[in-house]
Prior knowledge:
By secondary structure, this protein is mostly helical. It has 8 helices and no strands.
Amino acid sequence: MADVAKSSGYSRATVYKYFNNRQELIDAVIDMGRAAFFADLEQTARSQDRLRDQMAAAVAQLMNYLHDDANNPFAGMLDPLDEAMITRQLGGDLIASLGRMCTALADEAIERGEVAEVVRADDLGGWLARVLFTAHYAEPTSEEIGRAQDLLRSLCDLVRA
């Protein structure tokens, strides 16, 4: 906490005004990183018009984001951030957050007539989220990104109207 106060230019008392202890500070950094990650991921997905293309863009962004410091405002912190998410058992929270994003995109695709109406948006969103979550463990080579994109496109094609 003393190092945080010193590097921020504030007193320790000011830091303690906002964070009661070191764990609260770590949690806030993780939450801030996760919020930035999801905002960037959703913006990338929404830059495309079709669900299959949204998912292809999202998986490439996700794979690159976690490995390329230039894309990440928390450069140098990603490995500890990823480890902290796992040790804090946030994997389920990450899948749930990805699920909400993917479900919203799937619902919009259903409304556009792109996905068969018999498909439930939350089911499709859940499957897409799991593929996205799993893909972040792969190295972001063009071959691995291409495989993940092909899988997501295939899933989207299977449910097309």
